[in-house]
């Protein structure tokens, strides 16, 4: 077999192996991203609950201020009642008192209602915080597992890159440039075998002459249809023999 063709076959094989790591890496990253999304969503829910609880506490504080003011108003009304001298003033004071009492009742009812809302939300908050702990533990576990997988992949990649560099150092730069040019559009199918007299890149049948050239493997042969570099597998060569 032509030396350059042999180098191209080995180089292409390594590049294909390197390419297989991409979906593996993406799969691990997706696992981590999925768990991280769950944690982030849980944290957002917790923050929203805390915000709602705080808003309700602020409302209660506002109603408590109103109750203080209304209580003072009622005391003032009682004081004024002892001082009035006409029926008209008495009726006006009674209306003022009724309105103040209604507001006071409403404020107390709202405080009671909001207190129950806060109690419910605090119970839910406790559940969410407990669930968050579980999600964070799951995330930490997935991250650790992914870290191990990615470290193993990186080690394999380093070994492949060393082998790749060793081949490239020995290669003719024109041949390498030709390969890289094809690889830009063909990806890891830049160098493909011929099976049943067909290019296994475009799957089109090649001529008898091209097929004969591929079998001899004395020079680099490109597919006349797609331009990929062709070679004959050992099993196929044995069958031809």
Describe the structure.
The protein has 241 residues and is mainly α. The chain folds into 2 domains: 10-171, Helix Hairpins (Orthogonal Bundle); 174-240, no CATH class. The protein has helices at 3-81, 87-170, 173-186, 208-216, 234-240, and strands spanning 191-195, 198-199, 221-222, 229-232. Strands 2-1-4-3 form a 4-stranded mixed β-sheet. A hairpin with a 2-residue loop joins β1 (191-195) and β2. It starts with a helix and ends with a helix. The mean pLDDT is 94.
For the structure shown, list the relevant keywords.
2 domains; Helix Hairpins; 241 residues; mainly alpha; rod-shaped; 4-stranded mixed sheet
Strand content: 5-15%
In CATH, what is the class of the largest domain? Mainly Alpha
Biggest sheet features: 4 strands, mixed
CATH architecture of the largest domain: Orthogonal Bundle
- pLDDT < 50 runs, ≥5 residues: none
The SSE order reads: HHHEEHEEH
Strand order of the largest sheet: 2-1-4-3
Q: What is the alpha-carbon Rg in Å? A: 40 Å
CATH topology (fold) name of the largest domain:
Helix Hairpins
Q: What is the overall shape?
A: rod-shaped
| Structure class | mainly alpha
Number of helices: 5
Distance between termini? 15 Å
Number of domains: 2
Roughly how much helix do the residues carry, as a percent range? over 70%
Strand count = 4
Whole-number average pLDDT?
Answer: 94
């Amino acid at each position: 077999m032509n030396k350059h063709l042999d180098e191209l076959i080995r180089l292409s094989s390594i590049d294909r192996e390197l390419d297989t790591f991409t979906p593996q890496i993406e799969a691990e990253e997706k696992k981590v991203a999925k768990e991280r999304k769950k944690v982030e969503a849980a944290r957002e829910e917790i923050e929203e609950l805390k915000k709602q609880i705080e808003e309700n506490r602020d409302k209660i504080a506002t109603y408590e201020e109103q109750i203080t003011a209304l209580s003072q108003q009622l005391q003032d009304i009682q004081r004024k009642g002892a001082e009035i001298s006409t029926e008209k003033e008495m009726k006006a004071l009674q209306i003022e008192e009724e309105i103040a009492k209604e507001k006071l009742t409403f404020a107390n009812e709202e405080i009671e209602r909001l207190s129950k809302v806060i109690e419910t939300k605090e119970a839910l908050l406790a559940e969410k915080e407990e669930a968050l702990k579980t999600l964070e533990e799951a995330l930490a576990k997935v991250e650790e597992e992914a870290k191990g997988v990615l470290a193993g992949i990186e080690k394999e990649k380093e070994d492949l890159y060393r082998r790749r560099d060793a081949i490239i150092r020995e290669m003719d730069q024109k041949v390498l440039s030709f390969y890289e040019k094809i690889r830009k559009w063909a990806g890891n199918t830049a160098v493909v075998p011929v099976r049943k007299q067909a290019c296994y890149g475009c799957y089109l049948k090649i001529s008898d002459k091209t097929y004969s050239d591929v079998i001899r493997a004395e020079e680099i042969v490109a597919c006349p249809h797609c331009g990929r570099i062709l070679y004959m597998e050992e099993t196929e060569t044995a069958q031809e023999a």
